[in-house]
Amino acid sequence: MSSILTNNSAMVALQTLRGINSNLETVQSEISTGKKVATAKDNAAIWAISTVMATDVDSFNQITDSLNKGSSTVGVARAASEQVTSLLQDMKNLIVSAQEDLNADDRAKIQTDIDAKRTAISNIVNAAQFNGQNLLQGDESISILASLDRGSDGSVSATSITVARQDLQTSAAVDAADKVSGDAGFVSTADSATDTNTDKVASSAGTIASDDSDGTITDGATTTLTIKGGAVAAGDVFAFTVGGEDISVTAVDGDTTNTIAAKLRTAIDAATVTNLDAAGGADGADAATDDATITLIANGGDVTFDDSTISTTYVQSVISDGDSADISIAGGTLAAGDTFTVSAGGNDYTYTAVDGDTNNDVAAGLKALLDDASITDLNVTVSDAADPASDAATLTLEADGSDVEVNLTALASQDAAVAAGGLGAIADLSVGTTEDATAALNTIEDLLDTAINAATAFGSAQTQIEGQGEFVQTLIDSMTAGIGAMVDADIEAASAKLQALQVQQQLGVQALSIANSNPQTLLSLFR
Questions:
Q1: What is the DSSP letter of 426?
Q2: Distance from C-alpha of 280 to C-alpha of 166, rounded to nearest angstrom
Q3: Any idea what DSSP says for residue 148?
Q4: Which pLDDT score is estimated for 490?
């Protein structure tokens, strides 16, 4: 049955042509992009997998750069270590030659050569840096990004190769030292506190106790005074009266309970108390914890001794209620390990600087320590330096409500101690005498071992880094090939398919044209 309303042949031809055109677009897209999966709509699963792998490839390319940079950094350190080892061997040869019986001029010439090689080693160590990193200075390790590990659950973690620094610096050790006026971070004050002698708390360190309470040392009897073990501070006063004579000793820096006991015995003997034998007693085995004693022996008659006369006092510095003290912290560059101390409420509070700290950080750190101590009626405020590089920061201690114990004489600031470099002993190498040359020979052996171990460690690390770099590059190549297998188009197949689809398209157009001419045929029935 023919119909002018429904052209079934045309619909079939049109549907077929649409399918051909759709396939043709797909093939043309593969040819133009080179991919059979170019977008998520082409194949969502394959596109997702390939995209994740592609991001990993990009990441591994960055890792390759990291490994290359790390290898260069370690390579510089290795080469420098090997050069230092060679120079140390030259120094050893010179020291060996100095083991002979030489005159002073010859020894001086050898020493000059040794000093020159020492300078050369120092220059090499200081210059052995790559991209700002010097692995021959300090003791902190560096981490070099080596891989990205993807777990089965999709989680990703980074893996690093750790390379330890090998300290080959030739600097000698520097002891901690008090800062002086003009130094960065020097702590000072123009204010003063009031000093008063204050009784120590009974049984606290440095207090004196007696086993005689009746006021008399009976003829032939012994009274023992016990000085409580513990710290003694300069200015502490130890006093009592025996036989009508006042005995008093004031502590100085370095005194202990043992030295105070000895001074009191000397003072008692010097007072020539009637009927009192020479003072005796015993020191504490450890003055920091053990008690010292003083024995008083009456001989020939009674000796008066009233334990109420015993007095042990310490110097207490106070800021009066309503007053304040400004503590200045000088501007400048601070070093990690520098220490800053203030004393308040009977205790010292010390802040230790870290890398990057300025005097503003020091003032804030001291304030935090004092605030945490909750010292009664002490208010602490900070005025920051406008320019920490040159201006002073100010820490203000104010008594508000009552007098507050603040020892301004205990203010302290110290430069941090600096440990000797790994080759620090090189500074003391001397062949000036036969004895010096013998000692230098032992020292140079230790220095050689240090340098050889450093070169060995860097060599092993560089080998590991380069091996990891080769693996990562192989991994990149394998992943790239895998991605290509999933998403790249088969151009030969696409070309053949394109030609077939073009023929089908032409035939489809012809079929549609024929189908569309069918209604024209029906017109002949009405002529």
A1: G
A2: 58
A3: E
A4: 63
Q: Taking the chain (527 residues) in consecutive chunks of 10 residues, what is each chunk's mean pLDDT? A: 66 75 70 70 78 78 87 92 94 91 88 92 92 87 84 80 90 88 94 85 88 89 94 90 93 92 95 93 92 94 91 88 94 94 91 95 96 95 96 95 90 89 88 89 92 93 90 83 71 69 71 69 68
* Token pair 């981490």: residue: 143
Per-residue model confidence (pLDDT) at position 5: 66
Question: Where do we find the tokens 């194949």?
Answer: 43
Sign of CA dihedral 426, 431, 433, 434: positive
For residue 309, the model assigns a pLDDT of 92
- Amino acid code (one letter) for 304: T
Residue 510's SS3 state is helix
Report residue 412: phi and psi, to 5°. -150, 150
Type of residue at 241: T
Q: Taking the CA atoms of 28, 34, 39 and 40 in sequence, report the sign of the dihedral they define.
A: positive
CB atoms within 10 A of CB 437: 23
CA angle 172, 176, 180 (to 5 degrees): 115
Which residue, chain included where needed, has tokens 């400048």?
A: 332
Query: Could you tell me the CA-to-CA distances from 222 to 172, 240, 279 in Å, in that order?
Result: 57, 16, 10
Evaluate whether 479 touches 52 at the Cβ level (below 8 Å): no
Residue 284's pLDDT is 93
Q: For residue 445, which amino acid is it? A: E
Q: Name the phi and psi angles at 113, rounded to 5.
A: -65, -40
CA 117/CA 115 separation, integer angstroms: 5
Rounded distance between C-alpha atoms, residue 242 and residue 247, angstroms: 7
Phi/psi-derived region of residue 168, left when phi > 0, alpha when psi is between -120 and 50, beta in every other case:
alpha
DSSP letters for 310-353? -EEEEEEEEEPTT-EEEEEE--S---TT-EEEEEETTEEEEEE-
Q: How buried is 202 (Cβ within 10 angstroms: 0-12 exposed, 13-18 middle, 19+ buried)?
A: exposed
Distance CA 24, CA 15 (A): 14
Q: What is the pLDDT of residue 494?
A: 64
Tokens of 212: 């005689």
Q: Residue 111 belongs to what H/E stretch? A: helix 104-127
Total residue count of the chain as it appears in this document: 527
List the end-to-end C-alpha distance of the chain, in Å, as a whole number: 19
At residue 219, φ and ψ (nearest 5 deg) are -50, 125
Hey, what's the torsion of the CAs at 491, 493, 494, 496, to 10 degrees?
A: 120
Looking at residue 521, its amino acid is T
Burial class (CB in 10 A: 0-12, 13-18, 19+), 478: exposed
